[in-house]
Amino acid sequence: MKRIALTLILLLTPLAAWAETRIVVFGDSIAAGFGLPPDQGLVPTLERWLSVRGYDVTLIQAGLSGDTTFGGRVRIKWSVPPDTDAVIIELGANDMLVGFDPDGIKSNLHTIIDSAQGARQRPVLLLGIYALPVRSAPYRQKFDAIWQSIASQQDVLLVPDMIAPFRRLSQPERERRKILQSDRLHPAQAGVELMVEEIGPKVIELIAQTKAQTKAQAKE
User: Fold this and answer.
1) Which one is catalytic: 28, 67, 115, 186?
2) Does residue 9 sit within a domain?
3) How many domains in the chain?
4) Quick check: is 5 in a domain?
5) Is 170 a known active-site residue?
6) Is residue 122 assigned to a domain?
7) pLDDT tens digits, residue range 50-63?
8) Considering 29, 79, 95, 115, which one is annotated as catalytic?
9) 110 in catalytic set
């Protein structure tokens, strides 16, 4: 009986390991969960959202508060462990707030995606963010166009504006007090939950891509 039980464990273990998907969430203070308790940031909230829907996923938090696409371009090289299955990239907001050149931002993101994919050609999900009104209209137009351009050129999944739910508020000023922290920039827990609802379906697509790639590589 013990031998049968041990055999079952040995048989099932590889299946369980295969079922789990390891995804690095690489970004700035949003990915890092700035200003929030450890269990309320974007990464743990998204992981719970996926778990409730039956997805066996481990999300690895690789966020750095204040990071820009230039910093990410350097940091990505040592932020993605070899056993990573896919990468979510969330960078660009700080570049926009400082007013960095959109062409430079675009170039940095291309390099980040190339590094994230690596030799294994890992699936990538790019989380975009549209510019805030603090920037001029011409700048906003050029910045907002970055995301779709990159996604098309590099054939990666895209959420064009991860804070789109914030822009759809029926009573913007009143409701922003509930979804933003006191700095009026970083999301509170309620804001994180809105973001997860926005990006969650695309993360499910990312998982599906990862599973399909794993199956294809297993047949080679």
Assistant:
1) 186
2) no
3) 1
4) no
5) no
6) yes
7) 999 999 999 999 99
8) 29
9) no
